[in-house]
Amino acid sequence: MKRIFKSSVSILLTLILAFSVVIIPSAETAEIVDGKCTCGEEPEIYVAALGSATLYLNAGAEDEKVIFRPETSAYIELIAKLIGPLFSLVLTKDYDAFADKLIPAVNGVFGALANDEEGNSTPEVTTKEELPTDPTHGLEGNYYFGYDFRADPLVTADKFNEYVNHVLELTGHDQVRLRASSMGGVVTMSYLYKYGTEKVKSVILQCCPIQGTAVAGDLFNGRIMITEDSVYRYAQTALPSLLDGVTAKFVLGLVDVVYKSGFLGSVLDMVQPILDNCAPRVFDELLVPVFKSNCGIWSFVPDEYYESAKEFMLGENPNAVLEARIDEYHYNVQSKAGEILNGVLDSGVPVMIVAGTAIQRTPLVPTWQNDSDGTVDTKYASVGGTIAELGTTLGENYVQAVDDGHNHISPDNRIDASTCVLPDNTWFVTPMLHSTTHDGHGELYRWFFDNDDTGVNVFSNPDYPQFLENDIAGQKLVPQK
Ligand SMILES: [Zn+2]
User: How far apart are the CA of 167 and the centre of ligand 1, in A?
Assistant: First the structure.
């Protein structure tokens, strides 16, 4: 019996091995012929978001320190430093004394992020990003491009160009697929502006501040505002994407009590005078010096805020080199996003723009009613969509702004995509928290890349029309009804 069993196992093993010899090569048809890969799947590069590369102070030295993102211990230390001053503030109402403690404490955590006057990193702050060495590629695995978010996007585009060339060489392909998330879109747009589409098979731009984000516009104009409704709505709309179903329900219940009992209001009543009294000094002594030459953050400032932001942040005698480089991104990339993106499509490269909607934006600025994914306003990520304020519709009598022979108004009457620069290539996901994805997004992107030999758009597949609902629990994107 034992012997029979053994021999049948060995026959089975032999059979498996025999088949493997046949199956394995056909599953991995990646063969290099004359330096070119024959697998038929262009490698995908994920152009990651802000914070994609860790920033080190004095890398390699004994006192090496991570400065972005700061480690949890840095925040704990910061809170510990501020508890005493906060208590004193409650007792004395001496806001200046509080600012005297607050500003150096926060500066200790973020101060080293400041670039030099011309917008270059100081030599002590570096990343440890390296070029990839693994040639394995295909739609299931992808290459990851990380970068210093403070850098001039047009300089990062040069580094990205080297990265693209390296991946092409490594894999034996002539083109790459690009999937950009959030700030990755700024890098991708800069790359397309400088280097064109020759080496690009197709492009996905997910939740990208292609035309900026109002929170950067407001803050770079010195505007801060916090309201009870925005904080409450932020919890209501963002938490379901951040927590699992049961926890979210529990926390939302608590938030409801905190809001409806008026407790949130009383807390904010205490915060407001701190903002009113400390904000001017916090801007002057902290935010302006740390961020004024951060070219990356400048790329987030939308056009309608840009020139006044320069006055506020740079003053009367701006550094000419810094101004020239932020102007180049602003006026030649952000302001020409429509031209660049239409050029990409016209060159035969499929584009998918994905904009998130129906999440309360950062509850910190006057533009808190803009519909957004929580970080990027839907109108800026969709590059020109006409979007009703959060919680409202376009109105009963609304008529599509541009008649291009298609319907571009969302079933919930909140979005008119006809004003987008690429009305047929822009998808909206409701609700979608900034760059927060699940398998459903993965399937959408897979479908797009699988079909990027043909010009896919919002009319190509009834499963993926322009307006999608996000079934977060079911991890699916389904057509909005
Ligand atoms: Zn290949």
Answer: 11
Determine the Cα–Cα distance for residues 420 and 422; give it in Å rounded to an integer: 5
Report the first-to-last Cα separation within the chain, whole angstroms. Answer: 63
Place of tokens 């064109």: 196
**How far apart, in whole angstroms, are the C-alpha atoms of residue 363 and residue 374?**
9
Q: Which of 392, 382, 390, 463 is nearest to 425 (CA)?
A: 382
CA of 204 from ligand 1 middle (Å) equals 20
Q: Which of 71, 40, 4, 265 is nearest to 138 (CA)?
A: 40
Distance 131 CA to ligand 1 centre (A): 18
Give the span between the Cα atoms of 43 and 169, in whole angstroms: 11
Question: Contact, 394 vs 410, CB < 8 A?
Answer: no
Angle at 362 between CA 358 and CA 365, to 5 degrees: 120
Instruction: Give pLDDT tens digits for 399-448.
Output: 999 999 999 999 999 999 999 999 999 999 999 999 999 999 999 999 99
pTM over 0.85: yes
